[in-house]
Structure to design on (322 residues):
């Protein structure tokens, strides 16, 4: 069992050293990834329809994540009496950022896809830090030679627009594009609400593609177990989380804040249950735009959420392995 590192080595406080995700080792040679988890930045925000700034999301999440990185052999949770992410069992690396080509969505997305494919080829779980929600398109496309996935989507917006004025790869399109991929078997979309989300036809298209659409109030009415019972069991899940699905009272740093969103534990408990129900095989966390958040709380939420969810994933994998 891993032991905490308080008595030996450097103290390595959050503001000391290189700023990788969780202060994990860096691996910039994508053909030499040896890890269970690989973090990829996707600092692309040219798909936004309103306020830009999510290109700085990966950098801010990495910096926030250093708070959760020192003095431990893992992350001990006294409520569960479990040390999550033990350093002797779960190897994490930060592989840097995909190269972004300004004004060029197609090639920027292709570079993101290349990074995710490299992670999958190495047998690691990809965690992609956005960037606007359009980066989900290349992320999920990279799974086309993998077994099928069911998409778990947290967001205030449906993101099921087909095309507007020729735009097919903006941050309103990602779930529609995913629905066109044969390796995507269905969707559970949670947190979706009305104003500015989408039109009636897009909702019908999502349902026709196999989506179960739940508002925040639906989720609260059903409760965690009720929601989980609606999600296919024993399958592979890919999670795409837009930070505007959280209420802006706790996550103001985003381009399209939407009041009435989730609180932290509402989403975290869903993911803890989800990790027990099937295997979460990929995550993107998008739309963090730090310039709209003077306190930095949005980036801290993203970093803490990802650390917690990764802990749940690998604990349940270990339990299933016996």
């Amino acid at each position: 069992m891993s032991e905490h590192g308080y008595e030996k080595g450097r103290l390595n406080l959050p503001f000391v050293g290189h700023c990788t995700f969780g202060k994990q080792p860096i691996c910039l040679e994508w053909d030499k990834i040896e890890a269970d988890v690989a973090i990829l930045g996707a600092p692309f925000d040219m798909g936004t329809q309103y306020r830009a700034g999510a290109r700085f999301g990966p950098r801010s999440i990495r910096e926030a994540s250093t708070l959760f990185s020192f003095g431990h052999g893992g992350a001990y949770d006294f409520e569960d009496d479990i040390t999550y992410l033990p350093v002797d069992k779960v190897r994490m690396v930060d592989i840097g950022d995909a190269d972004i080509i300004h004004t060029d969505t197609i090639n920027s997305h292709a570079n993101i896809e290349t990074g995710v494919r490299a992670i999958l080829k190495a047998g690691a779980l990809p965690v992609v830090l956005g960037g606007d929600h359009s980066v989900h398109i290349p992320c999920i496309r990279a799974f086309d030679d993998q077994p099928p996935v069911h998409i778990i989507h947290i967001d205030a917006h449906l993101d099921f627009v087909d095309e507007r004025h020729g735009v097919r790869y903006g941050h309103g399109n990602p779930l529609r594009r995913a629905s066109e991929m044969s390796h995507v078997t269905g969707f559970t979309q949670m947190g979706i609400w009305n104003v500015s989300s989408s039109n009636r036809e897009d909702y019908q298209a999502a349902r026709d593609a196999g989506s179960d659409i739940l508002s925040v109030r639906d989720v609260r009415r059903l409760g965690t177990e009720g929601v989980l019972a609606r999600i296919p069991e024993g399958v592979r899940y890919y999670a795409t989380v837009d930070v505007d699905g959280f209420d802006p009272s706790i996550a103001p740093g985003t381009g399209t804040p939407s009041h009435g969103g989730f609180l932290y534990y509402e989403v975290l408990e869903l993911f803890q249950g989800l990790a027990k129900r099937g295997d979460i095989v990929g995550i993107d966390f998008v739309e963090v735009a730090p310039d709209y958040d003077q306190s930095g709380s949005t980036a801290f939420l993203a970093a803490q959420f990802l650390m917690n969810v990764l802990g749940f994933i690998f604990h349940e994998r270990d339990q299933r392995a016996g």
